[in-house]
Design a protein that fits this description.
Elements lengths: L1 H30 E5 L14 E5 L2 H4 L7 E4 L10 E7 L4 E5 L2 E4 L19 E5 L4 E5 L17 E2 L3 E10 L3 E2 L2
Antiparallel strand pairs: 1-2, 2-10, 3-4, 3-10, 4-8, 5-6, 5-7, 8-9, 10-11
Length: 176
Amino acid sequence: MKRENTIMEILGWLRAVAIAFVCALIINNILIVNAVVISPSMESTVMTGSRIMGSRITYVISEPERFDIILFKAPDGETTIPFLKRIIGLPNEIVEIKDGKVYIDDSDIPLDDSFIMEEAHGNYGPFMVPDNSYFVLGDNRNRSHDSKNWTNKYVLKDKILGKVYIEYFPNPQLFD
């Protein structure tokens, strides 16, 4: 009788562990995406070494917006590590960088880049963002390898892994 109770207790624990494991897989592969930031391209918004979490389902129910910070698969396919950048250009827009300032659709007024800590430099473009694609830049523009430099300039919507909502280590911070 005691042996049967022990076996039942072990089976109960195994079932609980199996359920927890399946729940973790579902959460990590369907609901959220986690990553460690390995480059300084988004400093000082998100620092190298930070751990971040994003929502995989945000863009199932809504469209990506300008200034969203996203995790995505590298457009040039050189790595399996997720990239982290900010959406700047939306589908069917023309993006041009003049003296480090970003202009959309030949506007005379540059985009607000108050989140950039260091004055950006350089002239790039113009770039015509295709349907279902996004032009992304790092917040550390002078040290970011991003859409302005890549061979494949744009991030396809289906390559976006999630919208970043929280930096949870080392400096907890919430994003809009």
